[in-house]
Design goal:
- By secondary structure, the protein is mainly beta.
- The chain is built from two helices and ten strands.
- The chain has a six-stranded antiparallel β-sheet, with no helix packed on it. Strands 4-9-6-7 form a four-stranded antiparallel β-sheet, with no helix packed on it.
- The chain is globular, with a radius of gyration of 14 Å.
- Bound molecules: (2~{S})-4-acetamido-2-azanyl-butanoic acid.
- (2~{S})-4-acetamido-2-azanyl-butanoic acid binds next to strand 2, strand 3 and strand 10.
Length: 132
C-alpha cells in the first residue's frame, strides 16, 4: 500500500505550477506508481481562463471548492462548475476552464500522467501540443 499526503508533495517535483501562473497541481499518484491512472489535486486561481487539451488522455475533474465554468470548444457549450460537480473529458475535448473564484479540482487521468509533460509541453497544453 502507498500512503501519501499533500504535505509530502508540496515543494517537490510532484508539485507543479503551470507556466501561465493560472494553476498549480499536486500530483498525488503518477505513472511510476504503476496503477493505470494518475490523481492530481489542482488549484485554479480566481479570475483565470485556461485552455487545455489532453489529446492522449481521458480526464475526470471533480470540483471540491470554488466555482467557475468549462467550455467545450468544438461546440461552444458552457457548463457551470461548482463544488460537487464533475466533468469528464471522455472525447479528448479541447476546453477552456474559467475560474470565477479559486477552484480546487481532483483530477484523474487515464493513461496516467508521467510528470514529464510539464517539461515537454508545459501546462498550457495549447492546441496541437500533447502532454506526451
Ligand atoms: C483542471 C485540470 O485539468 N487539471 C489537470 C492537472 C494539471 N494540468 C496537471 O497536473 O498537469
Amino acid at each position: 500500500m502507498i500512503v501519501r499526503s499533500l504535505e509530502d508533495i508540496i515543494g517537490t517535483e510532484r508539485d507543479v505550477k503551470g507556466e501561465s501562473g493560472h494553476w498549480e497541481s499536486r500530483r498525488l499518484i503518477l505513472n511510476d506508481d504503476a496503477v493505470g491512472f494518475s490523481l492530481h489535486d489542482t488549484v485554479i486561481h480566481a479570475g483565470t481562463e485556461s485552455l487545455f487539451w489532453y489529446k492522449h488522455h481521458i480526464e475526470a475533474v471533480y470540483c471540491i471548492e470554488g466555482e467557475g465554468e468549462v467550455e467545450t470548444l468544438d461546440d461552444g457549450r458552457i457548463y457551470p462548475i461548482k463544488a460537487g460537480t464533475v466533468y469528464l473529458l471522455n472525447a479528448n475535448d479541447r476546453h477552456k476552464l474559467r475560474a470565477k473564484t479559486t477552484m480546487r479540482m481532483v483530477c484523474v487521468f487515464n493513461p496516467p500522467v508521467t510528470g514529464r509533460e510539464h517539461h515537454d509541453a508545459d501546462g498550457a497544453y495549447l492546441p496541437g501540443a500533447a502532454m506526451d
